[in-house]
């Protein structure tokens, strides 16, 4: 079956730690950018202009190629009102779509339940990372968690394998157990190790995989290569999740921020090249987000927690361009020194749910939100 006939697949790349908006999509012709970034501003001679107003960080050259191909959407000013500027709480809001209370279910876990209510495929959702992401957790919904190289699964001694999988769940429990009403213990009780059975199915993916594409030796590239292996194995996985970071650049932002973006964009370039070479790119959409942006004025060597940030969507079926408005840098428009969010992140989710994943968005995210036009 041709790739265009296959079920739509979503890959989420979480930029953990709070990515700096101003040094990612740089308003390089705005004098307020220079005024506010005496220490960490990117010199105009180094930026990668994408139009007359905005430029990418110089480390983002692979992503600029995607922009030039018309397959990258930049979603400006994303966030929500009354940002708490807390990593834990903000990420929880993005994961559960509950800005006003502590949510008990992850938005993508709800999608998985919609797709596979009888749990016929334990690898509908595949997570690559050291712990289970809250966005994926719904009681009774299995998630295949890959904590290390995919090639190791199925080849570890059974005791060691069980210990590795228990560690993933233990990290998840310790991370969320203190949150009253978070449903963590219910999740672990109803799902438990069943959540990780998918690793047994996934061990066939590396055996089926052959590629000439060389991925960089970075953590995010290894995760993306694992996602490619599973996707190319045609095992019925619909949702993939991974993360990279930390983007928490309070100090020493340069050159650290650039190194983070080099790893992400070079990894994505190898990933998309791999999928294209195998004719498996047409049904894949990649969403990249961070829990918040960073303070407009730098602190002397870095930037502190902020509010609005950019999100990105890329893929063969994306209608590239700017969506939403870059928030104003004028002092009177800032909120506690931060860019003011003007696009609710749930509008992005709603668009992906309705137009890409083909599920009703309201039961997933709680209510109707404005649809965006970044998909062809």
Mean pLDDT: 88
Classify the secondary structure makeup into a structural class. alpha/beta
What is the β-strand count?
A: 12
The CATH C-level class name: Alpha Beta
Order of helices and strands: EEHEEHEHHEEHHHHHEHEEEEHH
- Work out the count of structural domains: 1
Q: What would the CATH topology be?
A: Alkaline Phosphatase, subunit A
| Main sheet properties | 9 strands, mixed
Approximately how much beta-strand content do the residues carry?
A: 5-15%
Q: What is the global morphology? A: globular
What would CATH call the architecture?
3-Layer(aba) Sandwich
**SS field, number of helical segments:** 12
Helix percent band: 25-40%
Distance between the termini: 21 Å
Low-confidence stretches: 154-159
Rounded radius of gyration (Å): 20 Å
In short:
The protein has 376 residues and is an alpha/beta fold. It has helices spanning 31-36, 61-68, 87-96, 107-115, 158-176, 184-190, 198-202, 204-208, 219-232, 253-277, 345-356, 362-365, and strands spanning 9-15, 25-26, 48-49, 55-56, 72-79, 125-128, 144-146, 239-244, 284-289, 309-314, 321-323, 343-344. The protein has 12 helices and 12 strands.
């Amino acid at each position: 079956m041709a790739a265009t006939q296959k079920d739509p697949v979503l890959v989420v790349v979480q930029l953990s730690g709070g990515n700096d908006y101003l040094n990612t999509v740089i308003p390089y012709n705005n004098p307020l950018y220079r005024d506010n970034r005496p220490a960490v501003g990117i010199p105009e001679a180094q930026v990668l202009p994408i139009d007359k107003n905005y430029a990418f960080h110089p480390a983002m050259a692979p992503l600029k190629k995607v922009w030039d191909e018309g397959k990258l959407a930049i979603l400006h000013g994303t966030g929500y009102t009354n940002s708490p500027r807390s990593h834990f709480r903000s990420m929880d809001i993005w994961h559960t779509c509950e800005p006003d209370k502590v949510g008990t279910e992850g938005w993508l876990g709800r999608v998985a339940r919609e797709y596979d209510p009888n749990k016929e495929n334990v690898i509908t959702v595949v997570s690559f990372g050291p712990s289970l992401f809250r966005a994926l957790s719904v009681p009774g919904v299995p998630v295949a968690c890959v904590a290390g190289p995919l090639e190791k699964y199925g080849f570890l001694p059974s005791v060691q394998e069980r210990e590795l999988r228990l560690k993933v769940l233990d990290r998840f429990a310790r991370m969320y157990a203190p949150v009253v009403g978070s449903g963590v213990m219910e999740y672990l009780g109803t799902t438990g190790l069943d959540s990780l059975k998918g690793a047994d199915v996934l061990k066939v993916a590396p055996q089926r995989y052959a590629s000439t594409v060389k991925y960089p030796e970075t953590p995010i590239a290894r995760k993306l290569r694992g996602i490619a292996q599973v996707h190319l194995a045609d095992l019925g996985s619909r949702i993939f999740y991974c993360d990279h970071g930390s983007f928490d650049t309070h100090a020493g932002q340069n050159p650290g921020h650039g190194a983070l973006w080099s790893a992400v964009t070079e990894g994505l370039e190898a990933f998309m090249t791999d999928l294209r070479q195998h004719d498996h790119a047409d049904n894949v959409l990649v969403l990249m987000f961070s829990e918040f942006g960073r303070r407009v004025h730098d602190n002397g060597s870095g930037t502190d927690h902020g509010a609005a940030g950019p999100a990105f969507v890329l893929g063969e079926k994306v209608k590239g361009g700017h969506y939403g408005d870059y928030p104003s840098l004028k002092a009177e428009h800032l909120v506690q020194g931060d860019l003011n969010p003007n696009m609710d992140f749930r509008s992005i989710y709603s668009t992906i749910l309705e137009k890409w994943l083909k599920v009703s968005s309201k039961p997933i995210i709680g209510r109707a939100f404005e649809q965006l036009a970044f998909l062809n």
